[in-house]
Write a structure and sequence with these properties.
alpha/beta, two-stranded antiparallel sheet, 494 residues, seven-stranded mixed β-sheet, 16 helices, 11 strands
Amino acid sequence: MFAMRVTSPPRHELGEVADGLERLDLRAATVFAPDLVEERDRIVRTIRSYLIPRLTEPGRPMTVVLTGPTGSGKSTILNSLLGLDLAETGALRPTTKIPLVVTTAANAGRFERLGAVTCHVTTARTPILVRMALVDTPDIDSTSVEHREMAESLIDSADVVVFVTSALRYADRVPWEVLRRAVDRGAPVISVLNRLAASSSGAVTDYSARLGRAGIETEIVRVPEQRRGRGEGRVPSLAVKELSRRLHALADEMDGGRLAGMRVAATVLGDAIRLGEGLEGLARLVSRHHERIEAVVDRGRARLELEGILDELPLPFSRAGLIRRLLRLPRPALPEPDLLHWLGLVSARLGSVVETQLRATSLELESLLPAVSGRAVIDPALVTMATAIHGWLAHVRRVTEGMGRKDRHLASAILVRRSLGAGDTATAQRVLGSREPVIVGRARADLERRLSVAFSQLSMVASARLEAVAGPAAVSDVQGLITRANARLTFADA
């Protein structure tokens, strides 16, 4: 057992923590770790809907939320604790979707909403309600997602959770997930194993063992099977005596629920610290993604193979033997229309090879940018590629402009072929002269430089898109708020 002391209700500090968490830029988490967004929202909801009301309303009765799977007997347990058959006293909820809160007339206004959930409130005069309000929730394993979300929200608003299951239902997966959520909150959880027959002792042992293996610490209260007449909505009070005793003991230990709020506050602030650590790790992940983008693009650029891509694309005049006559003096000029047509074929062939590698690289980048479409990355690079190829072919023609009118068109075609690893050196040297290796090398380097810009475009766009969907979380300011809130919560061993 431990005692807790707070210097004054930390409403202001908790509110600042919630405000700070809401201001966080969680675009990166939305893309890479949506669980962190859900965790932030849960922490904020707990602070605003539970902690602030609990710690600033000392007269608020202890809120006991009963939850569990379909057919576990939650409503029967609630009726039995009250000693009332609610169905007979008109306390039916308007619809099965709306939780039922039973409290005193003086506290009814406090329970019209719990968290984000609108509740149906009924009042009664019975001893247990002097110290606590009882909440009956929708079934947590209902086919309705809304029911489960509602039950989980109510659990987040509880001072004490009573998890009701039965010998037939205690192993079901979904209820266990909700039980884990309730335990992880930090508020007390009582596990009720309901409708136990005399032969069900093995179920108690097995259930206890399962709880131990799962690392869940919760007290198990047994409620034996009871014979009930037709229409009876409760069992004899003796059957729930132990549960009632335990709830009253918790009301004493938890100072009517206030200290339960203190325990939840400590847990929530710890969760907020871990959330900040997760977001800092996410920022490092985004930074690594930027580095990976550069590495992917560098690999794609290195894999681009231009050598020999024109081997199967002959010069427009070679098929008629004109190449041989063109290399003899005097030779006729290569017609401009023939050259332009051939350069168009070269542009298409070159563009096809480069586009294939750009698209392959873009597909690799998509795995790093799960929220960005591939077209958003590849389209700008394809435009840059087309511009680069057009500019390079124009550059080649400028290089050969100094040659004679008859030679320059042929020289342009030969230089293009040699730059892309096609044609023979002897023919190229007869057309381009003794400086052919230098001219070809420079033209090749110019093409590679221009195409490199298209790959750089991939990197620039991918990085910009990553930054757009993964803005900085900036958690340092929130960590300061959490530290100040923690300073107001003082724990000491009794």
